[in-house]
Amino acid sequence: MVYVKWAFILLFWGLLGAVLHYTLPQRDIGRITDTYEKRVDLDGENSLFWAQHDIGGSTTVTGRDVFFIQSRLKNGKVMVYRNEDTGWSWPPYFKVNSSNLQAEASDLKSTAENPKWVVIRHYGWRNEFISIFPNAVSVRPIADPDTRLIPWFNIVFLTVLAALFWAIWVRWRRFRQARIDPVLEDIGDSMEATGDAIAEKSGRFRRWLGR
C-alpha cells in the first residue's frame, strides 16, 4: 500500500506539473523570419493540442487554415509558433486577435544582417514527432536581445497556488486529527477488545475440552 500511495502522489504531482508547464505563459527572445498560413486537419492524434475552432466560425469543421510564425531565437535555435484564437476555452488567455497578431508579426520580420529583436509570449510545447506547436499570444519589439525577462505572473501565480495547496493540506490535517483519527483509534480499540474477548473465550473452551 505504501508503494501505491507514493505512486499515486507522484502521478498527481507529475500531471499537475505538466499541465502548469503547458498552460502558463513563457517568453522567447528572437527575430521573426517569416509568417505564413497553412491548412491543418484537426482530427488527428494531436488534435488535443490545437484550438477547437475559429471564434465565430463553424464548430463542426475538422480542418481549417492556421497562422504560423517562424522565428530564430537569440541562441540560434529555430522555433515555429502557431497563432490561434483561444476564445473562452482552455487555456484561459481569451485570445481573439490572431489576425491582428499575424499582421504585427509580419511587420516585424527581419534578417540576420539587420535583426529586429522581439519578445514572443506563448504557451504550449513544440514537438516535431507529433507536429504540435506553441501558441503565440503576443509579440513586442525590444532593443536589446540580452534583456532579462522576469516571469512575474508565473511567480505570483505559483506562489498563490502553493499557498492554496498549503492551506488545504493544513485544514485537512486538522480535520483528520480531530475527526478521522479518533474514529480509527476507536475502531482499532474495538477490534483489539474483540480479539481479546475471542482469545479469552477460546482459552476457556480449550480448558473445558481438557477436563
Uncertain runs are none
Cα-atom radius of gyration: 29 Å
Q: Quote the CATH topology of the largest domain.
A: OB fold (Dihydrolipoamide Acetyltransferase, E2P)
Named at the architecture level, the CATH assignment of the largest domain is Beta Barrel
Work out the number of β strands: 5
Domains (count): 2
Order of helices and strands: HEEEHEEH
* Proportion in helices: 40-55%
Distance between the termini: 46 Å
Q: Number of helical runs?
A: 3
The top level CATH class name of the largest domain: Mainly Beta
Shape, per Cα inertia axes: elongated
Nearest-integer average pLDDT: 85
Give the percentage of residues in beta strands.
Answer: 15-25%
For the sheet with most strands, the description reads:
5 strands, antiparallel
Structural class: alpha+beta
Query: Which strand order does the major sheet show?
Result: 3-2-1-4-5
